[in-house]
Amino acid sequence: MRRLRNVKIVATLGPSSDDYNTIKALFENGADVFRLNMSHGTHQEIKHKHKIIRRIEKELDRPIAILADLQGPKLRCGVFKNGDVVLAKNDTFIFDLIKDPGDEYRVCLPHKEIFNVIRKNESILVDDGKIRLRTISVTQKQIKCLVEVGGKISDRKGINVPETIIPMAALSKKDKVDLEFACNLGVDWLALSFVQRAEDVNEARKLTKNRTSILSKIEKPSAVKDFNSILQASDGIMIARGDLGVEMPVQAIPPIQKKLVLACRHVAKPVIVATQMLDSMVESPMPTRAEVSDVATAIYEGADAVMLSAESAAGNYPIEAVKTMNDVAIEIENDPMYRELIDSTRSGQRKTVADAITVAAREIAETTAVTAICCFTQSGTTATLVSRERPRVPIIALTPLVKTARQLCLHWGAHCVITGHVDRFKMAVISAARAAKKYHFATLDKQIIVTAGVPFNKPGTTNIIRVSPVDEKLIFSGEQE
User: Does the annotation count 384 as an active-site position?
Assistant: First the structure.
């Protein structure tokens, strides 16, 4: 199985996609990475989804990345007796510290710190700003509000207080428990919510002990301000536009998205564009034209991945949402303008031998008739550098390490293949040729580019590049007809 596009699709799993048949259908229709949202579901439920993904991975013989997304120090309301209530404009509604299920008059807000700092006449936003309330009176146990914009509020919806500064730790107690659980489970990426500074990432990295890669979610104004240091400390970035668009003026989000995507591309770190990309498909089998354009914009910008949240986790059409995103991606990448935009925005510093090898691989691919760039990698660095170049031909990332193959599934264009260990360059070329044939990237009469490092099985040694025939007879004979 191979994708007919380079951008990757991240699909969030939830009540609408928690069984084997649905998860398998999501993968077959285009999902490359599965997101496990630690804000919802028990550890047992998350473990069950993880087990299903690994079963599908084994059955289909394709590496699949799993991303665990920590809840973070986000304000969330408690649960309701009937799951949700509808608030109407000019209603009075109360947030309190009582743990009993909520109703149409009140709900628990289990964050004591907010009661100490919020003041009268400040805004409270619910569910990415869809519901707006204003505080009428505040005590240390109760916040009484007037509903300015009504709507449905349901269990554990996110709360934002853009006019209030709340002192919060980078990782909550729940996050630390979930982090350890996720690392022991064997997830490939760990997303940190509400990162504000590089120190937040460094704290999490100490706790992970290099068991997983760390992806920082940019959803606070302070994170945008300190983005360069956060990017340096992180292995990847998610532009979480929901909370970011609530905390900042909505008109500021598009230029911020462009800036952050380019910054990630320049340093060869994967970037996901997320939140409400096909939101109407929660209820409808068809997206709006504006949503399709939103997905297209992220692809034109060169993002590594686009993400589905509620669309695949809790919507009525999870498989259709993935298929739609896949179809949009294929269409956009076949547009000649896409290639012009990608080429015109390629930059970044090139200082090492590995940089030079990967640039040379792209340039050779652009001037000759090779059909793929095949890179052998231990740590994944070579493949990420090739991915940064956004070449016109497919990238086949070959590695003997399952962990590396899974993590590379998030990177633009990387078709990941798990190989046996090799100790000679000629055998590496043979493995590359076989992978190119197996996954229909090349036929016997074609050529491929192979990059590797000698000595083998040592990270950071990329120093060889070769244009090779796919025909094994020619490889062994050394003849290239």
Answer: no
